[in-house]
Design goal:
Structural class: alpha/beta
Organism: Rhodoplanes serenus
Strand content: 15-25%
InterPro entries: BUG, Bug_dom1
Pfam family, one: TctC
Radius of gyration: 22 Å
Shape: globular
Distance between the termini: 62 Å
Strand order of the largest sheet: 2-1-3-10-4-11
Number of helices: 11
Helix content: 40-55%
Order of helices and strands: HEHEHEEEHEHEHEHEHEHHEH
Keywords: Signal
Largest sheet: 6 strands, mixed
Protein name: Tripartite tricarboxylate transporter substrate binding protein BugD
């Protein structure tokens, strides 16, 4: 019995001793099977669309499929939590944005730490919003829409992708700018809220070009302005907020990729390299530009750049969100 126990102990020690080498070898061979990219919001929204474009670009770089899966709920916290709890082997990664991976930390009692429990992979792109309304809205200009909102503030409804999401935060900023408040209706994603806007169940929405433009072009909703200093290259007929009568009202938000804490550096490096390769690919770039995305420069697509950018955004937005009293409903 003693000899058996000794042999077991020696074998265990040997396994422990070679474990780092085995892990390194596995990391160097990564990936040998499909990678799952978790989208923390519903299908049809900007994050979902961007994820599918980036996933296809990374597939070519990694030589393995990158499967997009939507895991929704609680403003994106459910999906981000899934990534935090996933095995740190690189086969589960998550796309997120300034709402899910910054603002939510000031609103929700999270079971994970947005900075400590993830390995950053890289920044993807940033984009402005469009101020849109239901097709039956009588207002023909942004000035007229603002006047209508102020007259009917108690009756106005605005759809958002959830509490703390960029569409919600931009709506709060618009309320503060106009000095009035209205009802914010949270959904599980921009796709769902857009459907209700099209159906006329909502009055207004601040949404991404990726979600809004197809419905604007088909005449299903009205558009008033883009929340940026410059017009969109893909929709140059839409005026800026400066031009439309709401000077200085700007809002943009960004997307990035993360892996679970403890993912081997070699694996993170491969994922980051695949992301940079995808973003440099002309076909991927064109698809993102058509979605009104501004791709971050190559030197800002690194894990280190994302970590620094995310930390700066937390320092900027948490005090603003807390001062606005935004809470889980």
């Amino acid at each position: 019995m003693t000899r058996v126990l000794t042999a077991v102990a020696v074998a265990a020690a040997m396994v422990v001793g070679v474990s780092p080498a085995v892990e390194s070898a596995r990391a160097q061979g990564f990936p040998t099977r499909p990678v799952t990219m978790v989208v923390p919001l519903g299908p049809g929204g900007s994050t979902d669309v961007i994820a599918r474009v980036v996933a296809e670009g990374m597939r070519a770089a990694l030589g393995q499929p990158v499967i997009v899966e939507n895991t929704t709920g609680a403003g994106g916290t459910v999906g981000v939590g899934r990534v935090a709890r996933a095995a740190p082997d690189g086969y589960t990664i998550g796309i997120g944005h300034s709402g899910t991976n910054v603002v939510n930390g000031a609103i929700y009692p999270l079971s994970y730490d947005l900075m400590a429990d993830f390995e950053p992979i890289g920044l993807i792109s940033t984009q402005p919003f469009l101020i849109v309304a239901r097709k039956s809205m009588a207002a023909g200009t942004l000035g007229e829409l603002v006047a209508w909102i102020k007259t009917n503030a108690g009756k106005v409804s605005e759809g958002t992708s959830g509490v703390g999401t960029p569409s919600h935060i931009s709506g709060v900023l618009l309320q503060n700018t106009l000095g009035v408040s209205w009802t914010m209706v949270p959904y599980r994603g921009a796709g769902q809220s857009m459907q209700d806007l099209i159906a006329g169940n909502l009055d207004i929405q601040l949404d991404t070009p990726a979600t809004s433009l197809p419905h604007i072009r088909s005449g299903l909703i009205k558009v008033y302005a883009v929340t940026a200093k410059e017009r969109l290259a893909v929709a140059p007929d839409i005026p800026t907020t400066d031009e439309a009568g709401l000077p200085g009202f700007y809002y943009t938000f960004w997307h990035g990729l993360w892996a679970p804490k403890g993912t081997p550096k070699e694996v993170v490096a491969k994922l980051s390299g695949a992301l940079r390769t995808a973003l440099a690919d002309p076909a991927t770039k064109q698809k993102l530009v058509e979605l009104s995305q501004v791709i971050f420069p190559a030197d800002q697509q690194t894990p280190e750049a994302l970590r620094a950018y995310q930390k700066a955004e937390i320092d900027k937005w948490w005090p603003i969100v807390k001062a606005a009293g935004i809470k889980v409903e």
